[in-house]
Amino acid sequence: MKVSKYLDKVNNENLKKLIKKYIEKIGDKEVVLIKVPARINLLGTHIEHRGGYINTLAIDKNLWCIAGKRNDRKFYIYDFEEEKYKPQILVIDNELLKNKVIWTDFIRKVKIVPGDWSNYIKAGILYLQNKFTEIEISGANLFFYGEIPTGAGLSSSSAMVVATMTAIINLYNLPIKKEELPEMCGEAEWFVGTRGGSGDHASMILGKENYITHIRFFPFIIEYIPFPENYKVICFNSLIEAKKSKDAKDIFNERVATYEIGLKLVKKKFPELSEKLNYLRDLNVKNLGSNKKIYEILLDLPEKLKREKIYELLHNEDLEFIFETHKEPEDGYRIRDVLLYGIGECARAEVCSELLKEDKVNEFGKLMYISHDGDRVAKFLKNGKKIKWNYKVNDQYLKKLIKYSESKNKREREKSEIYYQPGAYRCSVEDIDFIVDLVKNIKGVIGAKITGAGLGGCVVILVDEKETEQILEILDENYYKPRNLKFSSFVCKSVNGVEII
């Protein structure tokens, strides 16, 4: 369809301005119009790349992309906020080898300009051209308009990858099924330097209106769970931008590296379990027989390790690919803290499916709070006083859990359940911890936690729909107004995944 035809099909005034800009710069040419929704993750944070479930909603904050073919092997990219995101012409022949390469080898060597918005577009284009070397992707005009707040943990960056790859697939009729696309998008995004998973992309591509998308990888499994009636989700934006700077990438990649190192150590120390442990999610009660066994395994691991010691313990392993993504943490890799978070979060994210089906919404909310405790850096009391969050998975803590797991006291045995253990991933910030602790004491709030990779961004708050307006007012009075910030929370509307309009 010619781009001018969309002027009568869309109601968004900024999108209409983008269409007119396309006509001005390119002409009234044949295009596709793509809509990619944001996503929120209710439970299952930092674990989709460990084989854990995530529980997400696609929501009505969209990235729009107008895409048309070119024939000169150039990609003209333009954003509605052109002062912030400067228009560029990309020539992929300058960056991609002519013959097909191993993607992970390619991205280890490629040089990118940190913080350049074009990196997310290049990621999708280069990945697809490398995968389909027999099909010439001769170029495209890609015009973007985004409603997804940047740096808010709602995956505005991943939306750019999804939009770009969806555009190229449609313009060039690439043989990719919708169910295959999320993992490809996740692998493509490694180009920018992060080592995350494909959960965000899957949520944006496969989301379903009024349903929670319950997803797992390795192998790919998807289930749709009806969103509970009479409840809403508020997305609270802290307005602390979760920048993907070098320091932030170091932290994100260091946590992923700790997962990798921890699992390798477990498999070395317990070779009899090695065949059962393909992913972190496999450290579960079903596989190992009891909560007690999990805690005994963790007790046999060091709390922290420096790289020098890791090389010594895992001398037969190729560790360079793990270490090259980040600088070494000063205090060493917090093996137990991060592993217990990941193991507990995998258990929480899996069991919540049954809780939702059984309408146990309050229990689901409890798990949201525990999940956030695993990301905490501070704790705020009811009087507003801040105290240090000093959770550590030390010997004393694990021995107590082992004791509780064997107790005749039902309450103590319940406390030892793996899904009640927060661990310590520590990717929150103090202001976000403040909000979680504030809303925990408000009538009608069921659960709250950080969403996204962390170090800023948003909190998702599950609420009784009757109390929604009052809760929004409390957020304004206690967070935005005292800081002289613009009110930036909203009630999420669940929508379908990516659409070609």
Task: Characterise the protein shown here.
The chain is an alpha+beta fold. It folds into two domains: about 5-230 and about 495-500, Ribosomal Protein S5, domain 2 (2-Layer Sandwich), CATH 3.30.230.10; about 245-375 and about 380-425, Up-down Bundle (de novo design (two linked rop proteins)). It has helices at about 15-25, 105-110, 120-130, 155-170, 180-190, 200-205, 245-270, 285-290, 290-300, 305-315, 320-325, 335-355, 360-375, 395-405, 410-415, 430-440, 470-480; strands at about 30-45, 55-70, 75-80, 90, 140-145, 210-215, 220-225, 230-235, 380, 385-390, 445-450, 460-465, 490, 500. Strands 1, 2, 3, 4, 5, 6, 7 and 14 form an eight-stranded mixed beta sheet that branches. Strand 11 (about 445-450) and strand 12 form a beta hairpin. The mean pLDDT is about 95.
